[in-house]
Hints:
Layout: H1 16-23, H2 28-93, H3 99-173, H4 179-217, H5 228-245, E1 249-256, H6 259-266, H7 268-285, E2 292-294, E3 299-305, H8 309-326, E4 332-338, H9 345-362, E5 367-369
Parallel strand pairs: 4-5
Antiparallel strand pairs: 1-3, 1-4, 2-3
Helix pairs in contact: 1-2, 2-3, 3-4, 3-5, 6-7, 7-8
Amino acid sequence: MREDPEPLELHSGESLKDHKADAHPSTGGAARQAVVDTDQTAADTDQTLADADQTVSDADQSSSERDQAQADADQMASDRDQHASDRDQALQELTDPSAEEAAESANASKVERELSTDERKDATEERSLTLLERIEDAARRDEQAAVRDAQAAIRDRAAELRDRAGEHNQRISGPGGTYPTAAEDRARAAEDRARAAEDRKRAALDREQARLALEKAQLDDLTGCYRLGLGRAMLQREIDRSRRSGGRLALAYCDVDGLKRVNDEQGHAAGDALLKGVSEAIRSRLRSYDAVIRVGGDEFVCVLSEVDLEQASRIVDDIQDILAKEQHGASVSVGLATLHDDDSLATLMERGDRALRKARLASPSARSLR
């Protein structure tokens, strides 16, 4: 009968894996190295997650600060409206207000209500931008959660390797180990992670629906381009992205040539068809994530990321060719401007508008670069 092996005696500075490697030189060293490798991978992943968590935390703080600013702006707008209403009410209660008093009160109320309207418009744009950023933040959190799941799988693998090393010692030293229970716990944890992953998928679908609903509510009914409110928020987001990445960005300010003449001579239905054709020609040449905004009756603004003036000029040429072919000689005048280090959204759009006015003075379908 084969005698049971004697339990291993560990001396100072020795470990079980040292004996395991000695006892099984062909497999012990490889197992020990596999454990070390998986532990190192998990440690690297931990650092990656820590960095990503800090990034998302900073983004959350920024969103929170903007939320407070939007709430403050709404409150200021409400206070101005109330003040204007109180002034109008006080005037009505006067038995015989003078014409000068009435005119002064009416003018002051008009100014305050205009300020309130502007503040609410700005707050609406900020809310749109904040909502889009939160959707993106949530997507990044999902990515981090997926990384955590991968990290947990790596740690499970390391634990399995340790269990195998422990089983060798258990065979030597006798029963009493808890490895089967630990393996069961890991299996349950893996099932929990799988369910959490499914929950994240459903949440991602909900966020996508919310984003689509937001965009649909802010799209121009005729052309399908962004309206000015959300459009400005999208432009600002692209400017911010370009600055974070150190990339290039060009803005194209477009004006539809001859729209008034088409409306007068062929009717507004023909004018609407021309506007739709222009928006389709623009979008057909741009990438899916390049924002197109209708800023006026016959004006569009396009933002082109990661392009310089020369590349933007070629894109505009392609749009002109597509438009002339599809809309029987139709054209747009275009002003191009690139993002400068000290630009705000307002200054970038202003330079694009100046370039557009210069192009209009030149000739139809001309292009000016700034």
